[in-house]
Design goal:
single chain, mainly alpha, three-stranded antiparallel β-sheet, 19 helices
């Protein structure tokens, strides 16, 4: 029964995201233009970004893809602009040109590029088979959603997810990102696979094999290499070393630390980012807050104590879609929040994992992730000196929150009371998915297709 719910959850996410993708015009996830361009560069064998003199980092992108993107660049941040059938038909006729022009995409320069493999394979297949750019882009969406769903399925074969984990996957923000060609959904699925493998190893009495630890470490590096706030996951192999007295596990912990630091140091050194004038270099700002940690504490407190800002974090966690230009009504946010809160209550009633070391690792990784979100945006996105941290969105907290959600585990044995809890959870999950789909469909149709004066 528990596995059936897990399988249904993955199928539900896949089908819901597929539907949302049909309603969403291309490139309406934040920075999706850059993500697709980075995937294209990988499909052509360009592992790292290049830098033209006097320009930000980027690469040479097919002009057909650039023409296709241009059809939709009027949409972001302009809710009054709608999609027309003529615009969609015109975009469908654009083919790969075989000619390339330099395009800047510095924001993706810090991401370890293998995370873009599904999108890159799709774009390469589409171009090789002579498909239009539109068909290739839609194939990239499908490959990304399919890869993420397969990773989720693998995770749920190892770990039975709690209703709280499933609820987080059913949120409008999660489903919307799953429908895009960005790397959010694959990152989400990878987090759950890493946690599943970790908890499976920790519950065994025998020392894990080198192969399993290497595989888990490779996944951690791949994820942390594109999601810096996942770097605290290096704690996981360290706990193997503590529990199993394993020197190889401790060695992997040290190798992971060096590898992640080296990657970001290298990426920072070769990436020229001219998007924001910070008033100082990132290195100078980093040095300032390291030497003056109380200044960071003051800035963080000023950020979190701002009621409007924290409400914005909640809304962007539940779902402000598009380029942050497709909000829901206050009633919708309240309903979503209350349903998730009820599911959390049932999760608490059913208990959590009783392994203290595993709990410590997951909780530490979660709060380390929260810290890195704020600190990284302070030194890379917020003009210096700062009175508050800018650029933080609630969706950035999904991955750390999943660590905490995985503390609540479905029990293998179900008594009468637990069976009632399970039934209540299932009803709430169905309600959440249905409500998310309805609210998302309505919001997307109003944003992209219907004029406000109709």
């Amino acid at each position: 029964m528990t596995y059936d719910r897990s399988l249904l959850a993955v199928l539900s996410v896949f089908c819901a995201a597929l539907w949302i993708g049909l309603l969403t015009p291309p490139f309406q996830s934040p920075d999706e233009f850059d993500h697709v361009e980075r995937a294209y560069l990988l499909s052509k064998g360009q592992f790292l970004l290049s830098t033209d003199e006097g320009r930000a980092s980027g690469g040479n992108v097919d002009t057909g893809l650039l023409d296709y993107m241009a059809q939709f660049k009027s949409l972001p941040h302009h809710p009054e602009v709608k999609v027309t059938s003529a615009q969609l038909n015109s975009a469908k006729d654009i083919d790969w040109s075989g000619k390339r022009a330099y395009e800047t995409l510095p924001g993706t320069g810090y991401y370890f590029p293998l995370i873009y493999l599904p999108q890159a394979l799709a774009l390469a297949c589409g171009e090789f088979l002579g498909q239009s750019v539109d068909a290739s882009y839609k194939l990239a969406r499908l490959f990304t959603l399919g890869a993420g769903s397969l990773i989720l399925l693998a995770a749920f074969r190892i770990m039975v997810p709690s209703a709280l984990v499933i609820a987080l996957l059913f949120l409008p923000m999660t489903l919307f990102q799953a429908a895009s060609a960005s790397i959010d959904f694959i990152s989400t699925a990878m987090v759950l696979l890493i946690i599943a493998l970790y908890l499976d190893i920790m519950k065994r009495s025998t020392r894990p094999s080198i192969q399993r630890m290497l595989g888990l470490s490779a996944l951690i590096f791949l994820l942390a290499g594109c999601r810096l706030h996942m770097a605290p996951l290096v704690l996981l192999p360290l706990t193997f070393g503590v529990r199993f007295r394993s020197i190889p596990a401790i060695s992997l912990f040290m190798v992971l630390c060096i590898a992640i630091i080296s990657w970001y140091g290298f990426a920072l050194s070769i990436t020229k980012d001219m998007r924001v004038d910070l008033g100082a270099t990132t290195t100078q700002i980093l040095e300032y807050y390291v030497l003056n940690p109380w200044q960071f504490a003051d800035t963080l407190w000023a950020t979190l104590s701002d009621g409007q800002r924290t409400l914005y974090y909640l809304h962007t966690f539940l779902g402000i879609l598009g380029w942050l230009d497709v909000p829901f009504s206050p009633q919708t946010y309240t309903t979503l929040f209350l349903i998730v809160l009820l599911i959390l209550m049932f999760a608490i009633l059913q208990g959590r994992i009783d392994d203290g070391l595993s709990s410590f690792a997951l909780i530490s990784s979660a709060f380390g992730g929260f810290f890195i979100v704020f600190f990284s945006l302070l030194v890379t996105w917020t003009p210096h000196p700062a009175s508050a941290i800018l650029g933080v969105q609630g969706r950035y907290f999904l991955l750390p929150i999943l660590f905490l959600a995985c503390l609540f585990q479905s029990r293998g044995t179900i008594d009468g009371r637990a069976r009632k809890y399970r039934m209540a959870e299932n009803v709430l999950l169905i309600l959440l998915l249905s409500f998310s789909l309805f609210a998302t469909s309505e919001a997307l149709e109003a944003r992209y297709y219907f004029s406000s004066n109709i």
